[in-house]
Amino acid sequence: MRPETTIQNDDAHVMINPKRFSIRDSMRYMFQEQRLLFLLVGIAIAALVSNVVVVFPSRSPPLQYSEPITGGGSFHVAELTSVPRRIAYELHSGHVNTGVRIPLGLKPKSLRVLVTGGSGFVGSHLVDRLMARGDSVIVVDNFFTGRKENILHHLRNPRFELIRHDVVEPLLLEVDQIYHLACPASPVHYKYNPVKTIISFKAFFFTDHKTNVVGTLNMLGLAKRINARFLLTSTSEVYGDPLEHPQVETYWGNVNPIGVRSCYDEGKRVAETLTMDYHRGLNIEVRIARIFNTYGPRMCLDDGRVVSNFVAQALRKEPMTVYGDGKQTRSFQYVSDLVEGLMRLMEGEHVGPFNLGNPGEFTMLELAKVVQDTIDPNAKIEFRPNTEDDPHKRKPDITRAKELLGWQPMVPLHEGLPMMVSDFRQRIFSHHREGGNTISSV
C-alpha cells in the first residue's frame, strides 16, 4: 500500500492522497502556492508566441479599381473595395507585410503633417512626397488658388485628410509638423485682393493681407499649443528690387512699402518677423525658406507668372507677352527640386532663412526662346510696358543651402519645361474639348 504524500507549507500540513490527487488540486496549488512562478511562465509563453507566430494576410476579394477620371486626364483614383483598413494602408504606402517582424526601435516614425495650401501648385507636390514617405497628411485649403484635382488621387487613402478652411480663422489639430504654404503667390491673385494677401500672413485687417499675417499668427499659435515644428514658405520678393546680386540671406532687401506688390512683399517680411519672434520669445521650433521662381505641372494656367504665361500663350497660338525690354532676369527651379529643399529644411537642425532656387539666370527674352524651342519655333513675341516695381534682377545665392542642407537643384530648365508643357497641353486642350461638347449638346 502506497503511503500518503505530505505537502507542507508554512501554515499547516496538508495530507493529499495520490489516488485522490486531481487536476483541480493541481490548479489550486499553482494559483495559491506558486503564483509568481505561474505568472513568469505565462509571460514567457506570451512573449514566445508573439515573436514566433506569423500573421498571414486575410483572404479578401480582389481589388477593384475605378475608371480613370475624364477631363483632368492626368491622374486616376484607386478605389479599394472590401479591403481592411490595415491592408489598405499597406497598399497605399507601398509597403506590404511580408510576415517578418521589425524590432520596435528600428521602425521609422510615421509623422502627422499639416500642409496649409496643400491643394495648390507647390503644396500638392509636397503632399505627394509626404504621402510617399508614409506620413499621415492633413491638407487645409480654402481653394482660392488651389485645385481639388491636384490632390484628388489621395482622397481614398486612410492617411490623408482634406479640410476646407481659411487659415485666417483659428484651427485646432494635433500634428508633428506644419508646412505653412497658404497665401496667394502669383501677381494676378495677390493684386486681386491685396488686403487678404497681407493678412493671410495680421490679425484683424481686411482680406489679402490677412493670409500672410493672421494666417501665420494662427499657425504659429497652433505650433505653440501642440509643440509642433513650423516651416514658413517665404519668398524672394522680400528682397524687392535688389541692389545686391546675387542675393544672399543676409541681404535686407530694397522694397517699396506702398507699391502694388507690397501686399505680398511686406506681408511675407512680416510673416518672417512673426516666425522669428515666436522662435526667440517662445522657443518654438521654426524653419524659414525663401522660395525663388518655381515652375512645373499643376501651375495655374493664367496666374500672371512668366513661365506659365509664356507656355499657355504659345500653346494657344497667342503672342508671348514680354513686359519692358525683356532684359529682366529670373532664376527658375523645377518644383521637385523645391519640394526636396523644403523637406530637408524641415528635417534639418537649422532655422534659416534659406534661399531655395536655381542659380541659373535667364532674361525674359532667353526664356521666351526656350519656350519657342520647346513648343513652337514660330511663336511670336509681343512687347508691352513694364509693370510697376518689377524687379530688374533676381538670382539666389544658395551657398548656405548647399553647405547646411546638402541641397542644390538637379533639374535644368530644358528638362523641366517639357514636363510642364505636357501638363499644360493636356489641361488646355481638354478644356477646349469640354467646351465644344457642352456647346454641341446645348
Automatic annotation (TrEMBL):
GO terms for biological process: D-xylose metabolic process. One of its GO terms (cellular component) is Golgi cisterna membrane. Its cofactor is NAD(+). It comes from the Eukaryota. Its EC number is 4.1.1.35. It is a single-pass type II membrane protein. Pathway: Nucleotide-sugar biosynthesis; UDP-alpha-D-xylose biosynthesis; UDP-alpha-D-xylose from UDP-alpha-D-glucuronate: step 1/1. SUPFAM superfamilies: NAD(P)-binding Rossmann-fold domains. Its main location: Golgi. GO terms for molecular function: NAD+ binding; UDP-glucuronate decarboxylase activity. It is an enzyme of class 4 (lyase). Belongs to the NAD(P)-dependent epimerase/dehydratase family. UDP-glucuronic acid decarboxylase subfamily. PANTHER family: UDP-GLUCURONATE DECARBOXYLASE (PTHR43078:SF51), UDP-GLUCURONIC ACID DECARBOXYLASE-RELATED (PTHR43078). This is UDP-glucuronate decarboxylase.
